[in-house]
Design a protein that fits this description.
Structural class: alpha+beta
Mean pLDDT: 94
CATH superfamily of the largest domain: PurM-like C-terminal domain
CATH architecture of the largest domain: Alpha-Beta Complex
CATH topology of the largest domain: Phosphoribosyl-aminoimidazole Synthetase, Chain A, domain 2
Strand content: 15-25%
Order of helices and strands: HEEEHEHEEEHHHHEHEHEHEEE
Radius of gyration: 19 Å
Number of strands: 13
Strand order of the largest sheet: 8-10-7-11-9-12-13
Distance between the termini: 25 Å
CATH class of the largest domain: Alpha Beta
Oligomer: single chain
Low-confidence stretches: none
Length: about 350
């Protein structure tokens, strides 16, 4: 153990892995507990399985309540489960919080939950010493039948890797909403507003993406690329499944506007927080049908790679050969907050 200060963002994978391995798992009904690349816990309740997810919102402040519901429901969706019950903790800044702020965040949460058929069943709200911006932490519980459960360890050699929408939709929206003045010298006001609206169009929810994919063919694993973006999501899927993932960076869809925003801040689009894109491994003979179903529903889907036998690693492939793809130490967007 060292005294070296850690950077903003998720804990480094080596430290996190060590912590998670020490977590007590005392109940035999826990089917899936904590681990690298595992975003949800699964508990066997006999006639059904309950899926649990807890997530904070720390980068965004605009639409923070609505945002919190979307990111938690995304992770629930990657297990094939239906999101059902939500608990929320809202920590609000001292000296600047008024009743209007509390009501605004509450309305955002309630409206988002109504849209998805989720019941808000509890939580905690307080004005907190020492913080200067709202922080919302949500816990979402979903349910799924045993036969419909999708596990993050399910990726199998021969599977094809599919990605919906593109990356990094979420980072582009956050940067446009939180730092519009830094973008104005390079982008017009209409372009900044277009990026801000990425929250809704193409949208950061993947619930519908997952539902359509599961109805169209056999999906073996799904992942929501959050912190660390697609690069981290690929590594997490590789580690969870114990397989080698081979992907083609030039096949990854990056919206031109999102690419320009990343260039303004000097960020790698493939390593920026990327909710809105759904990463899937699917069996080879169903990949085309799944892609077609998503595209027919207005959700862009593209093949970006495949799963192979081998150690848990991510390889990029291009005409000059294969190379080990670097795992991000942290999300690129954290650089903007320093």
């Amino acid at each position: 153990m060292t005294s070296k200060k850690l950077p903003i963002g998720k804990l480094p994978p080596d430290i996190l892995s060590k912590l998670l391995k020490a977590a007590p798992l005392l109940d035999q009904r826990v089917i899936l507990g904590p681990g690298i690349g595992i975003d949800c816990a699964v508990v066997d309740m006999g006639d059904r399985l309950l899926v649990f997810k807890s997530d904070p919102i720390t980068f965004a402040t605009n639409e923070i309540g609505w945002y919190a519901v979307q990111v938690s429901s995304n992770d629930i969706a990657t297990t094939g489960a239906t999101p059902c019950w939500y608990l929320v903790t809202a920590l609000l800044p001292e000296n600047t919080t008024d009743e209007s702020l509390v009501q605004t965040i509450s309305n955002q949460i309630y409206n988002a939950c109504r849209e998805k058929g989720i019941s808000v069943i509890g939580g905690h709200t307080e004005i907190t010493y020492g913080i200067h911006r709202p922080i919302v932490v949500g816990t979402l519980i979903g349910e799924v039948t045993r036969e419909r459960l999708i596990m993050p360890c399910g990726a199998t050699p021969g599977d094809r890797l599919l990605l919906t929408k593109g990356v990094p939709i979420e980072a582009a929206a956050i940067l446009a909403r939180e730092f519009p003045q830094r973008l104005l010298p390079k982008l017009g006001a209409a372009e900044i507003q277009e990026a801000a609206d990425y929250l809704y169009q193409p949208g950061i929810s993947i619930l519908r993406d997952a539902q359509i994919a599961l109805a169209a063919g056999r999906v073996t694993a799904m992942h929501d690329p959050t912190e660390g973006g697609l690069a981290s999501a690929l590594w997490e899927m590789a580690e969870a499944s114990g397989r080698t993932l081979v992907f083609h960076p030039n096949q990854v869809p990056v919206p031109p506007l999102a690419s320009r925003i990343c260039r303004v801040f000097g960020l790698d689009p493939l390593a920026c927080i990327a909710s809105g894109a759904l990463l899937m491994s699917v069996v080879d003979h169903d990949a085309d049908a799944i892609c077609s179903a998503l595209n027919a529903a207005g959700i862009a889907c593209r093949e970006i790679g495949r799963v192979e036998e081998g150690a848990a690693q991510v390889l990029q492939e291009n005409p000059s050969g294969r190379y080990r793809y670097p795992r991000p130490e942290r999300d690129e967007i954290t650089k903007v907050y320093e």
